[in-house]
Amino acid sequence: MNFLLSGGGGDLWMTLGMVALMFVFLYFFMIRPQKKQEKKDAAMRDALAVGDEVTTIGGIIGKVVSIKGETFVLETTKDKTKIRFLRGAIRSVDVKAADIAATILETKEAAKEPAEAVEAPETEEK
Q1: What is the tens place of the pLDDT at every residue in 55-98?
Q2: Which of 30, 34, 56, 113 fits a disulfide with 60 by CB distance 3.0 to 4.6 angstroms?
Q3: Domain residues of the chain, as ranges?
């Protein structure tokens, strides 16, 4: 507070400028990236579909079997254990159901195509 009592106007503006600069720095390097990540996470949770394999914030991995409002049911283990979670409990979507369906479709199409006969290379005789 000595800068207020000293009567030097230049020091006051310098200090206010530094505070403003620090706020701008905090915004661009801390607040803005956090907001971008929150939007990305919200989009991931909104795009959740039945059949997706997800990991929860508690580390539980399973397949989504139903979605109702803000909750979803996760099926884990071979015994088909089902647990109900809030959408906010999703850490990541590991495998999308659409990706699995596309892979299966590509595999079926590849199996339907007839295997092309490989011709033996012709040798030239003299």
Answers
A1: 999 999 999 999 999 999 999 988 999 999 999 999 999 888 77
A2: 56
A3: 1-46, 48-112
